Amino acid sequence: MKTHVKEMYDLLVIGAGPTGMACAIEAQRAGYTAIMVDKGCLCNSLFNYPANMVFFTTPELLEIGDIPFSSPNQKPTRQEALEYYRKVAEHYDLVVRQYEEVSRVAGSDGEFSVHTRDIFGREKIYHARKLVLSTGYYDIPNYLNVPGEGLPKVTHYYREPHPYYDQDVMIVGGKNSAAIAALDLWRHGARVTLVHRDSVPHQHVKYWILPDLANRIQNGEITAYFNSHVTHIGEDTVTVKTHDGEVVVPNNYVFAMTGYRPDFEFLETMGIAFTGQDRQPECNPETFESNVPGLYLAGVIVAGERTNEIFIENGRFHGRQIAAALKAKLG
Q1: Nearest-CA neighbor of 305 among 283, 274, 284, 272?
Q2: Strands (E), the chain
Q3: Do residues 191 and 89 both lie within one domain?
Q4: In 286-296, which positions are buried (b, 16+ CB within 10 angstroms) versus exposed (e)?
Q5: How far apart are the first and last CA of the chain?
Q6: pLDDT tens digits for 142-174?
Q7: Residues 323 and 272 in one domain
Q8: Same structural domain for residues 297 and 276?
Q9: What domain count does the chain have?
Q10: How large a percentage of the chain has pLDDT more than 90?
Q11: With contact defined as beta carbons under 8 Å apart, do 14 and 40 qualify?
C-alpha cells in the first residue's frame, strides 16, 4: 500500500547531510517549503565516519545557515559535528524524513513525484515542484573485486579499534582513511599489515599523519606492502601479489579502504547525463540545475568521480545558488 503525502512542496532534497540541509535551509529562508528524505539518519555519512574522527578543518568552515559552530577544539570531532547539525535542524525546524530510501522519481519540472520505501517496505509518495539531489558518495565503496571479498571479515568502513585488539588486521589502501585506520588499530593492539598498489602513500595523506605512518613502517611496527595488491581473501589468510611474488599473510579482518563513488546508476535512472572520463554530471555551474529541468545537484556529486574536490567546506554554499535559481523560476 502506498501513502500519498498530499502537500506539494516547493523543494524536495534527496539526502540529509550538511549540504542537503543547507539547501533546505536556504530554500526556507527564501520563502519556499522544503522537505528532505534520506535512507539513513540525519548526516548519515558523517555518522558512519570513525567514532573518534577529528575533522581536518576548523569549525567555522563546517557552518551552515549562519549558525555558529562553537568548539573548544581547533579541529572539531565527529561527535561535535553531529550535535551541531542536530541543533541546526532543530533551529530551522527542518522537515526530515529519515530511513526512507528513494526507489524512483517520476514526473517532471513543476510536478515531481518521489517514491520512497522505509525499512519495513512501506511506500510513500511525495510531491515537489523542484528537486535537489545531494546524496554524497560515501554509500558505495570501490570494490576490490577479488575472491573472498564477500566474507564477513571484510568491510569497507572503519569505526573503532577495540574489537580488533590482538588480531591480524589488513588495511588495503593508501589515502587518509587507510593511514588513520592503520595507526589507530596499531595503537590499540592490533597486528597491522598495509597493502597499497602504489609505491608510496597517496599525496593527499595529511602532512602530520604521513611521518607517523612512515616511522611505524620503518620500525617494523606496521608491515607494509607497496606496489602490491590483494588477489584472494581466505578465512584465515590474505594472498598479496608483490613485486617479489605472492605472499600469504595471516589475517582475521580486512579493511578495504579503497574509496567510494557516487551512485551513478541512480542518477542515470533520473535522466542525468555525464561528461568526461570522471563522469561529471551535466549541470549549470551558476545554478546547479542538471540537464533534467527542475532537478538540481549539490555537494560532492557535482564533481563525479573527482570526490576530493568538494567537501562540506565548499559544498555548503551550493544551497544559496540553488535558492537564487528557485527565486528566478518560482518567483
Answers
A1: 274
A2: 2-14, 34-37, 96-97, 100-108, 111-118, 123-133, 140-141, 154-155, 168-172, 191-195, 223-225, 229-233, 237-242, 245-250, 253-256, 260-261, 274-275, 280-281, 295-297
A3: no
A4: ebbbbebebbb
A5: 36
A6: 999 999 999 999 999 999 999 999 999 999 999
A7: yes
A8: yes
A9: 2
A10: 80
A11: no
Spatial separation of the C-alpha atoms in residues 263 and 246, rounded to whole Å? 34
Among 258, 300, 295, 293, which Cα is nearest to 279's?
Answer: 300
Note the pTM of the prediction, 2 decimals.
0.91
- Cell numbers for 259, please give them: 574509496
Residue corresponding to grid cell 506539494: 8
pLDDT at 200: 87
**14 within 8 A of 135, measured Cβ to Cβ:** yes
Of the residues 256, 275, 290, the one at which a domain ends: 256
**pLDDT per residue over 20-55, tens digit each?**
999 999 999 999 999 999 999 999 999 988 888 888
What nine digits make up the cell of 329? 523560476
